[in-house]
Write a structure and sequence with these properties.
Strand content: 5-15%
Largest sheet: 4 strands, parallel
Oligomer: single chain
Structural class: alpha/beta
Radius of gyration: 18 Å
Shape: globular
């Protein structure tokens, strides 16, 4: 079934990002020119196609990412791309063959019931870890798809910034190309390092931000 796209609070979903909304926002930024509020990068968060990370969602961006990127650049900024790494609902959740790449398969835990509107960050992070489907970065077909599609997206958007978020670098599956549990982390980190190298090759002055789930200064060895 189709799942809603959430911004921050899954108990209170906001409208999804669209080409029209970006255009409206760029108009608002232009009106601030007299306030001397320039920006270097315009980050795009909710852009992904649920079957293919190599393209923007056509229902929301009918003219494709090229038109949106051209509009951002015409406004004097460069594009930034956000990606949710292991979180399926904020990534290629409908990727063909995805079942073999899901972490902790066949047990995904129990999703939270947020129908009543109650919500706290504690529940959100708990749900991210154990209550919803997420991908193993070292498992196929997700690994190969990301390593191909995301660098192409970075290159075609001429991205200045790539933000990697929502990482859970742990998988208990015994069917993937790693040892289960804590030992799965090495294979996932190696995949992220290769991804960063490929994205930088696609956009040589790219800056890479590692966000939630990357908890050590050690990662500054290959990210900004």
């Amino acid at each position: 079934c189709a799942l809603p796209i959430y911004f921050t609070n899954p108990a209170d979903p906001l409208p999804e990002l669209t080409e029209a909304l970006v255009e409206e926002n760029l108009g608002q930024l232009a009106s601030l020119a007299g306030e001397r509020a320039p920006f270097d990068v315009y980050m795009l968060d909710d852009w992904w196609d649920r079957e293919d990370l190599g393209r923007f969602r056509r229902t929301s961006f009918p003219n494709g990412h090229e038109a949106t990127v051209a509009r951002i650049e015409a406004a004097g900024m460069r594009t930034g791309i956000w990606w949710a790494t292991t979180r399926a609902v904020w990534s290629a959740a409908d990727l063909p063959g995805r079942e073999t790449a899901l972490a902790n398969a066949p047990d995904f835990g129990s999703p939270l019931d947020l129908a009543g509107g109650e919500w706290r960050w504690l529940e959100e992070f708990t749900n991210l870890m154990v209550g919803e489907r997420r991908f193993c970065l070292a498992a196929e077909p997700y690994r190969s798809h990301v390593l191909d599609a995301l660098p192409r997206m970075v290159g075609s958007t001429r991205a200045a910034l790539l933000k990697l978020d929502c990482a859970v670098l742990h998988c208990t599956s015994s069917d993937h190309d790693h040892r289960p549990g804590r030992y799965s982390m090495a294979a996932m980190v190696a995949m992220i390092e290769e991804l960063v190298e490929r994205c930088r090759a696609a956009s040589p002055d790219l800056r890479v931000v590692l966000y939630w789930g990357f908890r050590s200064p050690w990662y500054l060895g290959f990210a900004d």
